[in-house]
Structures are given as C-alpha cells and as structure tokens.
Write a structure and sequence with these properties.
The chain is an alpha+beta fold. The protein has four helices and 23 strands. The chain has a domain of 241 residues: Jelly Rolls. The strands form five sheets. Strands 1, 2, 4, 5, 7, 13, 14, 15 and 23 form a nine-stranded antiparallel sheet that branches. Strands 3, 6, 8, 9, 10, 11, 12 and 22 form an eight-stranded antiparallel sheet that branches. Strand 10 and strand 11 form a beta hairpin.
C-alpha cells in the first residue's frame, strides 16, 4: 500500500502555531481530498493507519496512500498569515512502507485555496519541501516560488528515505535573513543562503555581449609537430597479395574465371601514421567574454517573505503507495520513541527472514546429501 504521513505543524520561532495536525478524531473534516485526477481514473485514496510497526496504535496513526500508481491530493486550510519578519518552521513525519520507486513524499504550502477539490500539480504554492525519487534521481526537494516561478535548489539535498520502512522527520526553518536550515531526524543536512543557493535573482554580472574573441586568438592548446615527418619506410598497407600463392593446377579460367592470388596480412604493416602532437606555443587559453554589471539585476532582501500562507497539502504521484504521514506536535521526542520501536520491529523481521532463508538452505543441503547417498 502507500506511504504514511504524520503531518506536523506550521509555526514561527516565537511559538505561534498556525497549523497543527495529529490525524486524530475528525481529521476528515479538516482535510479536503482532491478531485483533480478523478475524471481520468488515476486519483488515489487516503486511509488512516499506524503502519506495520508502531509504538501506540492510536497515537501513531497517520494518513496513508492506499494504492499503487496513483495521484494523491489532500489539503487543509487555515487562517491566512504572512511570515514577514518571522522565522517560519515547517515540520512533518513520513514513512515509506514500500520503496516508492518513483514518486514524492513532500508537502506544499501556499496561499489560500479558492476550491480545495481542484488542488493538484497546477496549483500555485509558496514552498515545496520533502523527499522525492524516480529511478536513480533521489533528493529532498526544497523549492521556493519567486515571482510566479518555482525555483529548485542549485544542488540536491540528501535523500533519507531508503526503503527501510521507518519514520523520518523533516524540518525546514526559513529565516528573515534569507537563509534556510533543513534537518532530517534532528540532523542538520543544510544551512545556507537563498540568494546564493537558488537562482531566485538575476545574476549580478553577465558576459558582455559586445565583447568578441580576437581574430588572432589561439585556443588550441596542442598542435602538430612541424618537425615530425613520416619515415620513408613506413608501411601503411594492412593487406597484401600473397606472392607465394600459385594458381591450382586444376583451375579452369573458362569455368572458374580469371584466377587471382589471395590477400594476406602484411607482416611489414606498422599501422596508420599520425603526426606527433606538441604544446602550442601560441596558445592563449580559453577565451571568455569579459563580465559586466547585469542591468536586469535587482537585489531583494525579502526573498524569504510570502504575503499569504493559507493551505498545506500533499500533491503526489506514487508508483508504490503505502506512505504514511503523521503529526509533529511534541515532535522529536515522540518520533524518537516510535523510531526505536520501528527499528526493533524491523530487526526482528529481518532476523526472521534470515532464519527462514538459513533453514531453507540447510534443508536443500540435506536433500542433496540424501540424493548423493541414494546414487551410491
């Protein structure tokens, strides 16, 4: 089945919580399922589940994607707010009960939705945050919308969902100094600048379009050696006529055609001759146009700021479902307790599988010994 999500909270460092969810009683009334893909039959469904491994069945329940190869959409609204001048914290918990193969486990947060049932990939958002994988490409996404454009981080953040079936806690802190910090399972995996690590702003400098490479610029670092000449006795013929061959006595030119001696490898063949390459004394290096100030560059000290946060949601495609999302209240302590149980259950399951495999191997070995004894 699908992934399991325990959605945490949207809050500021000052302690104000704008949204929190533990997926307890009445969660269906707080969330709206998307119908974006309903018409083409690929809209997946959600269910409440603690997952295969849990510490407390009631406390550890989260929402789970229920089918394979489906789109999953679910969103919740809250009173609109702006993060101007505040540290914004987004935190949630996700567990892949099966290797996703291709799909996401991220959350989207953005401005108030006019119709939550239409929530889907085309829906504008402010921030997208969380794990994503398809084939060999796997990363923790952190995408910011800036002036209507969704901008990915220049380099990928580490992917921590490795199909182990245990829960992981994702935490983003967005700060008014235009920096961001990402933690997974309480471990910092990134801290840096929005200006430097995302192409949100136009570059400060650009190549001068008026600057042209000089006609005498030499950009070949190597050249043919003018002193190197092919030796007069250099043999380049790979195949030659076999001079020792004789026309068979019974060869009839009228019936067999004109006889020709066969070709053989030339024992004197030295290969194709090529002139030696040497460093070019006239080489000037790789030419680059000079840099000038970009007239389109406009600095912005409010890259972090969004005027309206009004929804949080999951808009996902999953080849393999069974992903669970869960709560983030009293968060890391609760996650640690659950994580210990999950790891112990996983170890027990892995040990049981290993024991079964060992018994099967031993049984096969005994059968092989019996077959050998009978043959004797």
């Amino acid at each position: 089945m699908g992934r399991w999500f325990a959605l945490g909270f949207l809050a500021t460092a000052s302690g104000k919580v704008y949204f929190s969810e533990t997926f307890g009683s009445g969660w269906e009334n707080r969330w709206t399922s998307s119908e974006w893909k309903k018409s083409d039959g690929t809209q997946g469904t959600w269910k409440l589940s603690p997952g295969k491994w849990y510490k407390d069945e009631s406390e550890d329940q989260g929402i789970q994607t229920a089918e394979d190869s489906r789109f999953f959409g679910l969103s919740a609204g809250f009173d609109s707010f702006s993060n101007a001048g505040k540290e914004l914290i987004i935190q949630y918990q996700a567990k892949y009960e099966k290797d996703i193969e291709c799909g996401g486990g991220y959350v989207k947060v953005g401005p108030k939705l006019s119709d939550p049932t239409t929530f889907g990939d085309p829906t504008p958002y402010n921030i997208m945050f969380g794990p994503d994988k398809c084939g060999y490409t796997k990363r923790t996404h952190l995408i910011f919308n800036y002036k209507g454009k969704n901008v990915l981080k220049k380099s990928d953040l580490a992917y921590k969902q490795e199909g182990d079936g245990t829960s992981h806690v994702y935490r983003l802190v967005l700060k008014p100094d235009n920096t961001a910090r990402v933690e997974i399972d309480g471990e910092k995996i990134y801290e840096g600048s929005l200006k430097e690590d995302w192409e949100l702003l136009a570059p400060k400098e650009i190549k001068d379009p008026e600057d042209k490479k000089p006609s005498d610029w030499v950009d070949d670092s190597m050249m043919d050696d003018p002193e190197d000449k092919k030796p007069e006795n250099w043999v380049e013929e790979k195949r030659i006529v076999d001079e020792k061959a004789k026309k068979p006595d019974d060869w009839d030119d009228e019936e067999d055609g004109e006889w020709e001696a066969p070709m053989i490898d030339n024992p004197e063949y030295k290969g194709e001759w090529t002139v030696k390459r040497i460093s070019n004394p006239a080489y000037k290096g790789v030419w680059e146009a000079k840099k000038i100030a970009n007239p389109e560059f406009v600095d912005d000290d409010n890259l972090y700021k969004y005027d309206d946060f009004g929804f949080i949601g999951f808009d996902l495609w999953q080849v393999k479902g069974n992903t669970i999302f869960d709560n983030a209240d009293k968060f890391v302590a609760k996650w640690k307790a659950l994580s210990e149980v999950e790891k112990e259950k996983k170890k027990e399951e892995d040990d049981a599988k290993a024991e079964e495999a060992k018994k099967a191997a031993d049984s096969k070995e005994d059968d092989d010994d019996d077959d050998e004894a009978e043959s004797e």
